[in-house]
Amino acid sequence: MSVNDLFKQELKVVNLGLKSFYSDLKSQGVATVQVNWKPKAGGKKNMLNLLSKINKVKQS
Amino acid sequence: MIDIIEKANKEALEIIQNGQPTLIGLGVAGEVIPGMEKDLFLHAGPPITWEKMSGPLRGGVMAGLIYEGLASTPEEAAEYAASGKLRFEPCHHHDAVGPMAGIVTPRMPVWILENTAYGNRAYCTLNEGLGKVLRMGAYGPEVIKHLQWMESVLYPVLKETIEIHGPIDLKTMIAQAVQMGDEAHNRNKAATSLLIREIAPSILKTSFSNEDKIAVLEFLNSNDHTFLNLSMPAAKATLEPVGKVKHSTIVYTMARNGTEFGIRVGGLGNRWFTAPAEIIDGLFFPGFTKEDANPDVGDSCITETLGLGGFSMATAPAIVQFVGGTPKDAVRYTTSMYEITTEESKAYKLPPLNFRGSPTGIDIRKVIETQVLPIINTGIAHKDPGVGQVGAGIVRPPMACFEQALEAFVNLLEDEGLLED
Q1: Overall fold of domain B242-415
Q2: Among all residues of chain A, which has the CA nearest to that of B366?
Q3: Domain boundaries, given as residue ranges, for chain B
Q4: Which site from A3, B10, B213, B301 is most exposed, i.e. has the minimal number of CB atoms within 10 Å?
Q5: Is the CB of A60 less than 8 angstroms away from the CB of B3?
């Protein structure tokens, strides 16, 4: 299906990330759901580094 | 082959699932709590000095000093507490837990519980009821008078009652209460009722006067939080052996002293990871606002650490009238806790979730990875000593506690040479 054909139909949107996209579509009456998602460890580099290290723990 | 953390966490969860908290009797704190001494008061949360104590903790200490006969006025009590004659240690360092300020003094009567599966014990004072009470930092004459009644009437009657009745399996009682709309932290109406139903005949069989027996039954019945001081040590007794499981990332303590929030993790033993306690979002009693509130305080979130309290709010829709929100929020809170826990309880089943077991075994790795913090429902104490409770609400621990714990855990593994290159 081409993008143009898609937009001729009724849209049902699943939004991931910035909530303002969800809010704008909802205010225009578009069926929208917001996914409760955050980047791993909130994107904090030091925590991602610690998680990566702890995942390399030895086998028993 | 599984990694050493998974192996350790499997052992930790076996401990949590198999724990058998049992009420075995009552005693006096100074005689039965390990390491309790005449110049020692226990308090809620991680270690703290008098200088850094918040209002409710100071108020509780002052009430304790007047109750012990070591001071006759609040001013004298504050002076005594600051003099260095009195030592302060966390309840958690003495196999005990205390709601709100959590002050335990040598003269106070305590429940004695045993985890019969592992042999460890846990202790907790008797609940005083709501309003102007020591645990909320109040120290007026009515507070002291009530504590004296608890010592001279409530305690001896209940002690003889449990001697007549014999041990009570609290795991089964909590499991039943969870199916009756309690989450075992801020709603204990069903469990308190079950306890009274269980022990009433034994109360009648004691050697005390009818007047005393009636007063005890009326007090237990008037206080829906009677059972809180049993659900807390039940959770403590169940979780404590996890503190000895090397390499486990499971949290076995969450507690607040009104200034700081602290956690302890199985593989990191007795080490606390602390950060400033949060202000609670909640409902306030008439005449009080958020401005009056002390930061988060009390050992009672040991119930959440086990998967009860805020973690089981789905089963207690009535609680939202006390702590705020809607029944839908209560379900959402519980559902989100499965994101950061390891197993579902085999004992504590939640009817509104098709009898799904409560989320249990908080893993610090999951908290950091998902950025979902444990949910806690709790009472709110006034920030000044001497006032008491001003509301109840919902709060979460600071993320910094979990971040510090994860860092310490990785450092430990590195030091022990347990990380692959």
Answers
A1: v583 fold (3.90.1700)
A2: A41
A3: 20-233, 242-415
A4: A3
A5: yes
